[in-house]
Amino acid sequence: MNRNFGVIDLGSNTARLVVYEQDKQGLVTEVDNIKRGLRLSNHLQNGRMDDEGVAKTIHGMRQFKELLDARNINDIIAVATAAVRQAENGHELTQRINQETGIAVRVLSGEDEARYGYLAVINSMKIEEGITIDIGGGSTEVTYFRNRQLQESFSFPFGIVTLTQMFFQGDIPTETEFYQLRSFLSRSFSSCPWLMNKQCPVIAIGGTARNLAKIHQRSVQYSMDSFHHYPMTGWQLTTILEQLSPLPLEARRQVPGISKDRADVILAGLTVFDSLLSYADSTELIVSSKGLRDGILFETVWGTEAPTSIREIHERSITQFMNRYQIDKAHAYQVKEHALSLFDQLQAHDLHKYGSFERDLLEASALLHDVGRTINVHESSEHTFYLLSHVLLAGYTHRERLLIAMIAAFKSNKLLQSQLTKHADIVCKADKNLVERLGHLLLLARMLDRSMSQAIHSIQLVERDQHWVIECQGKRAGLLEYSLLDEPLAKLSKAWKLPITFLPVTDTDKT
Amino acid sequence: MNRNFGVIDLGSNTARLVVYEQDKQGLVTEVDNIKRGLRLSNHLQNGRMDDEGVAKTIHGMRQFKELLDARNINDIIAVATAAVRQAENGHELTQRINQETGIAVRVLSGEDEARYGYLAVINSMKIEEGITIDIGGGSTEVTYFRNRQLQESFSFPFGIVTLTQMFFQGDIPTETEFYQLRSFLSRSFSSCPWLMNKQCPVIAIGGTARNLAKIHQRSVQYSMDSFHHYPMTGWQLTTILEQLSPLPLEARRQVPGISKDRADVILAGLTVFDSLLSYADSTELIVSSKGLRDGILFETVWGTEAPTSIREIHERSITQFMNRYQIDKAHAYQVKEHALSLFDQLQAHDLHKYGSFERDLLEASALLHDVGRTINVHESSEHTFYLLSHVLLAGYTHRERLLIAMIAAFKSNKLLQSQLTKHADIVCKADKNLVERLGHLLLLARMLDRSMSQAIHSIQLVERDQHWVIECQGKRAGLLEYSLLDEPLAKLSKAWKLPITFLPVTDTDKT
């Protein structure tokens, strides 16, 4: 039986419920996601949550409970952050929620919140050293990690809602207001001297960060629909902030990509990012769409240990993808074996100069080449490209995801050319040759297991009279595969400018 | 347990194995498809299959068996057509196949073949009256149906391979050769006087037909990847034939879209279509990618009864799509109820002039609006559009499929505009208003069951003081849905230029 559970994040700006389904293999899939903009930080009066805030919270939680009841879900992980943590009557509030809805809300410490942000990033991004910043409505968490290990963390008691209240009076913030906000932030950051001059990427988490990515992607007509792992320069961030600052709220709401219910508080959020980049002397901001909830999820599903290597993250995310789209694993692993064996033997004979970067791409592509068949066996290459370029494969950059998608879906130069043209902002013409060559390797590897029965169990590349021969060690003579290898081999030979043929070797031949 | 089975079509030009998986609900999915170009018609010497033809057949069938064994499939439906039917030693051949591979091949009569073609078409196309023509390598089957019922059928003992052998000597067929072929075809058709001057669409089945669609779609850069139900005019067919005829074989092979191993026989095939259109005085040719194998499948899965109405075909194909992409059915049916109820009540109040065409589109869209969630809950509208515009929904024309996809995936005018632009060759600007209005109806209907718990069980549209009110009959007060209806209602009101609000009515209120 699949297990369903809900994760509720009662944030200071937004309350959100996410419903997950976990299958027998442990694979977790998000199946529903609903948010309510409660703005609880606005209901903190003299350190207490006011009656309206309490009522809104109870009402919102009751509605979430209704959705969970409708799905027969009793397994609920609920956490609350700054607004409830900071409210004197926070404990009364969680007790009332429990009485009225049965939901047990755990109030996170700032340190917990920071650690969950780090966990979300480290489990889903290819990055060795960085600063995470998660801006919520009423608090802001920062961490610093090196060699993927958490080094420092801190929680500031201000967020986009409270900073907006504190510093911005009118519709359009004044120069002075911005100056005062920046001064306040500098003073605040100085309580974390370990942030100073780190010169490493800043990873931005939370709704403000996702919205920043969306606004920027719209403005440059970015060719992928993915916020996670979206890289921006400090200069791009500053430009967006400068474009939005002089606009009245109504005009700001009309900016393409901006979230309408965030337009009033986004300036404070972007200023925090901008100030942090200055303080840390960083030039790169990377958006993470994984945050608090995902950190909780990683802890629940994988335990608190952060994985030590990006390799493990890759293996996990590829396995999840394979499970999710019901790949025939024996076939996929066999195709991977053949593809990597060819890659390595060509390398041993000094027939290419590729390294581990390209080998990893080929490996991922080989394991995932069949995902499109879930959609339909017809035009499955197109579907494979669609899935790999649209659905998050955690731990890879956008460029890597596209290269994997193109190699996995490689069928013809015509199709590849249209993909390269569409994504010319992410991949470049020089990638064409790489994709073509690895693509033909993969097509051959696939044909070597066309019957999906692992009838050819190993291959050996040998040189014979000016040309190369792939000796295919097979279970029997006359395998289906042998009658299908000529075409992919001819194309491979052409792409690699290398005359290659094959020779069947039956197991009994050698005994 | 899912049942897997293989269907083998030992044709006169091509042998093909298709592997299907049938789940407990009866849904059949194609999971593998492999073909071998055997050209058996070329091996008929004086009415006997020659030794080489026999050897190639045995070898090919053994390879199919290997693939089936690798998948542990023992359930095999194998049929042979003209080449084996016409060979004096056909019976010996099928006996040898049985001895050497265990596969029992059933040799189809020409009448069977014709009927299967008709069954494939009638079960997958929206057409009341038509002529089907299925050209194989060694025979050609025609049928005529009216009111979706089979009226006549016939099998001619010639196909693309044999006609090419008989009439075309050199690389480029001469005018005289074409003239002789056309004369021969006219004489042949005259044995079926029921074909003459029918003036109904000709539905072309088989590899030649699919290749024709591909060539034409390439030449006009058609915006959908779908051959089935692709409509062409007789003039378009004639133009392609005239473009291909003067080319030497090698140049013909380079024509975009042409199948390389069919380039030598395609001229004969296209001439047959062209002659039939003349003979039947038809101006419309519709390509069917469903053929013999699908007819067999329909017979196996649904029995031989052809469905009486397109409505049943639609219901079946929507249900298959829903099963395939694991839709929450209770929710989908509830959304459909709400959407159609709104549609009908607006109609009753004379607030729109739409009819059953639009109502059917709305119904299909409502049932299928969630298919994209199978891919990912994020950006699920985009995925819904991708699936509905890329995966065949049998029984609908291309335009209908796109309209359903656009209504089901409707989220914003921006997204719709990009879809309309991409498919401007199939849908037109005038469709925008329809999609927008039905799209907003559907968005409201979805929100009326946002908790997916059918908490609002019926709705009533009533007029009150110059504006319209939707009374929502719900199980309880304070439903999640009520706090989410304002936005879709405001947008609906704007799109329909109709002020609409809502009023919760709790079940107990009325007692």
From TrEMBL, chains A, B:
CDD domains: ASKHA_NBD_HpPPX-GppA-like, HDc. The keyword Hydrolase applies. Gene3D superfamilies: 3.30.420.40, Exopolyphosphatase. Domain 2, Hypothetical protein af1432. It comes from the Bacteria. Residues 313-473 form the Ppx/GppA phosphatase C-terminal domain. Belongs to the GppA/Ppx family. This is Exopolyphosphatase. It comes from Brevibacillus choshinensis.
